């Protein structure tokens, strides 16, 4: 099938392939192609019309739901059952720093106590210091 598409989409190849046909046969092919094109155009228009009708119905339903004070989650809760649907999770505020230490360059750094312990703090603890020494008061 791809060979056919290669021939039909390149004018030189198409001309070479159709060289043996007379004008009447070429006109028949043109008529058939025109019919295929017009059917495809009609199908595309029908699909677009159906899609537009669907959009209009959705907009009408949204307006009706808004007027009635109904949210989509109210409908889904009844269908799914159980507790109310969870609202979208909000991003939490960052935790305040809990520890303060100096890195290898002598710069003061902080750490919340979450996640991987910073290398400089880990080295200090490995060398005998306690984590409580670095607590911010």
Automatic annotation (TrEMBL):
Residues 37-71 form a coiled coil. Residues 97-107 have a biased composition (Basic and acidic residues). SUPFAM superfamilies: H-NS histone-like proteins. Its main location: cytoplasm. The keyword tRNA processing does not apply. Keywords: Coiled coil, Cytoplasm, DNA-binding. It is found in: Cytoplasm, Nucleoid. Transmembrane segments: none annotated. Gene3D superfamilies: H-NS histone-like proteins, Histone-like protein H-NS, C-terminal domain. Pfam families: Histone_HNS (PF00816), Histone_HNS_N (PF22470). One of its GO terms (molecular function) is transcription cis-regulatory region binding. InterPro entries: H-NS-like_N, H-NS_C_dom, H-NS_C_dom_sf, Histone_HNS, Histone_HNS_N. Residues 114-119 bind DNA. GO terms for cellular component: cytosol; nucleoid; protein-DNA complex. Residues 81-117 are annotated as: Disordered. Signal peptide: none annotated. Residues 89-136 form the DNA-binding protein H-NS-like C-terminal domain. Belongs to the histone-like protein H-NS family. This is DNA-binding protein. It comes from Idiomarina fontislapidosi.
